[in-house]
Specification:
Blueprint: H1 12-41, H2 57-81, H3 85-90, E1 92-96, H4 104-116, H5 127-138, H6 145-150, E2 152-156
Antiparallel strand pairs: 1-2
């Protein structure tokens, strides 16, 4: 599906840069949340010398904390404003291809699941998010698999990039 709303697609380098900023922000927030929430408030052992498994109480709590952080940093801001911290810093916006407005809750949740849910798969969970990110870089349209399936488009939101 080609976008029906005229926008300048975001440059690939800025999209990758925005993803890196978002991952760094999410990592910092997750580290603080894991230490403060799980370690101090819930009594978890975030500095355990044994590996965490998602089937243990510590692993389950950490998985829930991770999901909440990703919703707070990626899904909610994308749904309401079309912008994550990385997109704000680099002048980008995620829009619905049909309306040109922020994608809304359903599209944002679906897009977020396509990007991040795979990491729950032990050992190989990082491969699919990396492949989806690579699909953004190598796709002729600049739309990754997650954008095509969710019906979204990341556009240049700088004052000169909108509605060209």
């Amino acid at each position: 599906m080609t976008p029906s709303v005229p926008h300048t697609p975001a440059p690939r380098g800025r999209r990758v840069g925005a993803r890196v900023v978002d991952l760094v922000v999410a990592g910092w927030v997750l580290a603080v949340a894991a230490i403060e929430i799980d370690g101090r408030l819930l009594g978890g052992d975030v500095f355990a010398q044994k590996p965490l498994s998602a089937v243990t109480p510590d692993g389950t709590r950490l998985a829930v904390i991770t999901a909440l952080v990703l919703v707070a940093i990626e899904v909610a801001p994308t749904a309401w404003w079309g912008r994550t911290p990385g997109k704000v810093v680099l002048g980008l916006q995620c829009v619905d291809v049909d309306t040109g407005r922020p994608p809304g809750v359903v599209r944002s949740v679906f897009r977020g699941l396509l990007l991040h849910a795979w990491v729950a798969i032990p050992l190989v969970g990082w491969v699919l998010p990396a492949a989806i990110t690579a699909s953004t870089v190598f796709a002729p349209s600049g739309r990754g698999v997650h954008d095509r399936l969710a019906g979204t488009l990341v556009v240049d939101a700088s004052p000169t990039g909108l509605d060209r």
